[in-house]
């Protein structure tokens, strides 16, 4: 049976904006996050502490966080690839940190410049430091339904990386269809395979909408015990290391679809639409005048 309520993790300020050709000003990014909070989103990924040479759009995540209001009912999450990123995230007051691995070797190399094994070895001290600091840990697996370099990815490979992330201490593992290659049948088969080794209550669906199938893929997995879905306002997003990847499934579309299914999200659609308009206008302005952005 389907869940009666789903928690949406809003990833637009990170996964969305990291892939824009322009970098939005800190004040605009903070204002977007405030609008998302006002719409009822409480789990919000606000940025990342990665190399600014790799992803310049996220370079000033600490400055964005310094402007945010408290979020007592939820948490602000940031991506960290290593201990250096974790220390910066802790200093900035992150409520949750997320490490990110891949189910394909070629994507791991392109995205974080190391093998899957090396990445997990790098996450071990991050997990230990997070535990010591009392900061919850999230884990991502990328390319769960296909890799831009290697093509098909076996569900068993996804399950193995997910299992290892939980063994490190991740309380939740988000399954990323990085390039939106999935179909409902394959999405379901993947989640079923992962659910054999990680309880489905600890899984999240993170689907990009490249082929317009993200909503159908989410629907196909909803009766498997998963009740967390990642989405990006206005369908912002993509991935800088996966050419052709388009945005995450739009939060607006997920909220509307869940309303049709009678699944509660706690999100105010009008305020969410307003947040989406705000960021699309800001991006249009920045694209028109990048020098002043
Ligand atoms: P590297 O070059 O192998 O790292 O990059 P390094 O350890 O050799 O360090 C090189 C330089 O980077 C040094 O600076 C470090 O200080 C610096 P230098 O001495 O040359 O001046 N550096 C850092 N700076 C700031 N913060 C840090 C940090 N670490 C090192 N944390 C590295 C390895 C992982 C750092 C690099 O590849 C990187 O930053 N990659 C980030 C890639 C990224 O952010 N991708 C997008 C997010 S993943 C995604 O979108 C998928 C997801 O949405 C799920 C899905 O859809 O599938 C999550
Ligand atoms: Mg993504």
TrEMBL record:
Under which pathway is this protein filed?
A: Metabolic intermediate metabolism; (S)-3-hydroxy-3-methylglutaryl-CoA degradation; acetoacetate from (S)-3-hydroxy-3-methylglutaryl-CoA: step 1/1
| InterPro entries, A to Z | Aldolase_TIM, HMGL, PYR_CT
EC annotation from Swiss-Prot or TrEMBL? 4.1.3.4
The top EC class is lyase
Q: Which residues form the signal peptide?
A: none
Q: Which residues form the Pyruvate carboxyltransferase domain?
A: 6-273
GO biological process, alphabetically ordered = ketone body biosynthetic process; L-leucine catabolic process
> Which Pfam families does the protein's record reference?
HMGL-like
Query: Which Gene Ontology molecular function entries are recorded, alphabetically?
Result: hydroxymethylglutaryl-CoA lyase activity; metal ion binding
* Assigned keywords, A-Z: Lyase, Metal-binding
Q: Give the record's family classification.
A: Belongs to the HMG-CoA lyase family.
Q: Which PANTHER family match?
A: HYDROXYMETHYLGLUTARYL-COA LYASE
Protein name from the UniProt record: hydroxymethylglutaryl-CoA lyase
Organism annotation: Methylobacterium frigidaeris
């Amino acid at each position: 049976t389907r869940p009666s309520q789903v928690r949406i993790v809003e990833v637009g300020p990170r996964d969305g904006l990291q892939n824009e050709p322009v970098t939005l000003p800190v004040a605009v990014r903070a204002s977007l996050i405030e609008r998302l909070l006002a719409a009822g989103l409480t789990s919000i990924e606000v940025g990342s502490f990665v190399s600014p040479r790799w992803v310049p759009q996220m370079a000033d995540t600490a400055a964005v966080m310094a402007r945010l209001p408290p979020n007592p009912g939820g948490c602000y999450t940031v991506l960290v690839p290593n201990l250096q990123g974790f220390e910066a995230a802790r200093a900035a007051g992150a409520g949750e940190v997320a490490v990110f691995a891949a189910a394909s070797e070629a994507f791991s190399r392109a995205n974080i410049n190391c093998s899957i094994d090396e990445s997990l070895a790098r996450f071990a001290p991050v997990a230990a430091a997070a535990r010591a600091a009392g900061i919850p840990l999230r884990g991502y697996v990328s390319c769960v339904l296909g890799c831009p370099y290697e093509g098909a990815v076996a569900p068993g490979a996804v399950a193995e990386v997910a299992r290892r992330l939980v063994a490190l201490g991740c309380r939740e593992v988000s399954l990323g269809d990085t390039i939106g290659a999935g179909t409902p049948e394959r999405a379901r088969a993947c989640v079923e395979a992962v659910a054999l080794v990680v309880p489905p209550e600890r899984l999240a669906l993170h689907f990009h909408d490249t082929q317009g199938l993200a909503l159908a893929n989410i629907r196909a997995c909803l009766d498997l015990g998963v009740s967390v879905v990642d989405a990006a306002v206005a369908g912002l997003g993509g991935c800088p290391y996966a050419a052709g990847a388009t945005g995450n499934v739009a939060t607006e579309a997920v909220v509307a679809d869940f309303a049709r299914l009678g699944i509660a999200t706690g999100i105010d659609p009008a305020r969410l639409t307003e947040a989406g308009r705000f960021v699309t206008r800001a991006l249009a302005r920045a694209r028109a005048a990048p020098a002043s952005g």
